[in-house]
Design goal:
D-Maltodextrin-Binding Protein, domain 2; about 35% helix; globular; alpha/beta; disordered N terminus; 10-stranded mixed sheet; 12 helices
């Protein structure tokens, strides 16, 4: 798998750096923690990087109270690029990743063996925290308009990468409306490039705003965002209850000067039931440390939406015992 190769390179670089610095003994004391994210052009990857930074505290780091890391002592967390939600649920359940980001739909359906996971319950997964809402984007070429979603019939449409929760949702939406499109399985960066080159008529992607790939697209070719009608938002909520009404405000992307009614699903940080209770407790505690608050607020615009008070919002599967212990201490679980 791609993330395994990237992980190997990252681990080798970290260990080599410590060894060169005379830290071979320290390297032996480290625990690596792999966090599955998504494609580099989306939101999971930078958010996963911020979380990895927040919970890491390699041997030799300055103490938290002296301006250093406030993460878990000895932990080196690494954000690994993957195909996002479905892939992360599968990899965590199989023990190939230690944690990951995934949409609430994929998390709940995976645990219950529904949707893409029919006949394959992923009951080894557990929640650490609910993070932020992921808005559905339907991206169109500059100047293009759709009268309704049904106008996608016969078009070349990007349905997101295989293994992503977005693709599962998009195909449910297309099926509901009887849309027969030329579906193309593409990541966000590929979709943006093909739209710019005239090889796509539209593409879907769900995630925390703003997408780096769309900022770049806006600065070059430009684009439009489809405004979902009230009836479409209601219908989508009916077929995919995890998706609720949302809004991408004007100015979220510099070239989009109008509000964009849409739907959104919450992104969650998950891990496996087999992870030690003490470790996940310390990771959860580090995630909600006041220093992490500063990191999230400054690191990404969607980081501001990651709040301790909504850490359990929309969580429909068991919380990991380590995280549960922390939430009981702060009064979020009675």
């Amino acid at each position: 798998m791609m993330f395994k190769r990237k992980l190997g390179i990252l681990l080798a670089a970290v260990i080599a750096g410590l060894t060169l610095a005379g830290g071979a003994t320290q390297a032996q004391d480290m625990k690596f923690f792999r966090i599955g994210t998504g494609g580099a052009g989306g939101t999971y990857f930078p958010i996963g990087g911020l979380i990895a930074n927040a919970i890491s505290n390699p041997p030799g780091s300055r103490p938290c109270d002296k301006g250093g890391s406030c993460g878990v002592p000895g932990l080196v967390a690494i954000a690994v690029s993957t195909n996002a939600s479905v892939a992360n649920v599968n990899a965590i359940d199989a023990g190939q990743l230690d944690a990951g980001l995934a949409g609430a739909q994929s998390v709940t359906q995976g645990y219950n063996g529904e949707g893409k996971f029919v006949g394959n319950k992923r009951q080894n997964i557990r929640v650490i925290a609910n993070l932020y809402p992921e808005d559905m984007h339907l991206v169109l070429p500059k100047g293009a308009k759709l009268g309704s979603l049904k106008d996608l019939n016969g078009k070349r449409v990007g349905v997101a990468a295989a293994g992503s929760g977005t693709q599962v949702s998009v195909r449910m939406i297309l099926k509901h409306y009887g849309i027969k499109a030329d579906e193309q399985e593409l990541g966000l960066a590929q979709s943006s490039q093909r739209l710019a080159d005239g090889q796509l008529d539209a593409f879907f992607y769900a995630g925390g705003t703003p997408f780096a790939a769309l900022i770049q697209l806006g600065a070059t070719k430009g684009f439009e965002l489809y405004q979902f009608s009230a009836s479409e938002r209601k219908a989508i909520n009916g077929i995919i209850p995890y998706y609720v009404e949302s809004m991408i405000p004007a100015g979220t992307y510099e070239t989009i000067t109008y509000d964009v009614p849409t739907v959104a699903v919450n992104g969650q940080l998950i891990t496996s039931a087999g992870q030690p209770t003490d470790l996940i407790y310390e990771i959860t505690k580090a995630l909600w440390n006041k220093n992490t608050r500063k990191l999230l607020d400054k690191g990404h615009s969607k980081g501001k939406a990651i709040r301790q008070e909504t850490a359990l919002k929309g969580v429909l599967i068991p919380v990991h015992p380590g995280a549960e212990k922390f939430y009981k201490e702060v009064g979020l679980i009675k």
